[in-house]
Amino acid sequence: MKTNVSFALAALCGLLSTPAMAQDGEFSIGVLAGADNVKVKDGGSETDVMYGVTAGYDFNLEGGLVVGLQVEASDSEVKEVERDVFFAGDTVTTEATRDLYVGARVGYRTGPALIYAKAGYSNAGLRTNFQLGTVNETDNDTLDGVRLGAGVEYPVGDMFAVRAEYRYTDYKAVTLPNSTATIDFSRHQGVIAAVVKF
Q1: Which residue ranges form the domains of the chain, and what is each CATH number?
Q2: Which of 42, 43, 56, 78 gives the lowest tally of CB atoms within 10 Å of its CB?
Q3: How far apart are CA 190 and CA 164, in angstroms?
Q4: Over the stretch 63-92, which tens digit does the pLDDT of each residue have?
């Protein structure tokens, strides 16, 4: 999964580096916050706040087309407690921690607004605690996932812009501590970002 995303981003960088494609560009950096819903497959879900920082570079092409690269670092307050997951009387607590993202977006300017879609790679932290009787095991994992999203960006003055964005991330399964059992995770996020452009 990492290899596929890295190859796609490298190919995009090569394409954008050609003089015929790249007309002009702008760098952006900003902050974001929103709602983060983490779901366990065949289980429950939990929603809480997330927050982070974002940066990117957009190439403004002919005809209102925009193609860009983005990076993001965020954290989440999501914490979920599930009981009787694998055995009667057990408790599985999962906490979403830091999330690192790299990806690309493609958009189209209609009037002052930019409507865009995005895709990329997410590497998220997950803390899992398994309790059953006297057994208490905690494990910190990193999850590889593919993120898809869509949003709209609207300028505020000459240097600032706000974004409203929805994204969905599907993660590979994580194995519980001292067990062969696995849990599948996905997440839905709705975020608002404020960025400054150079």
Answers
A1: 2-197 (2.40.160.20)
A2: 42
A3: 8
A4: 999 999 999 999 999 987 878 878 888 998
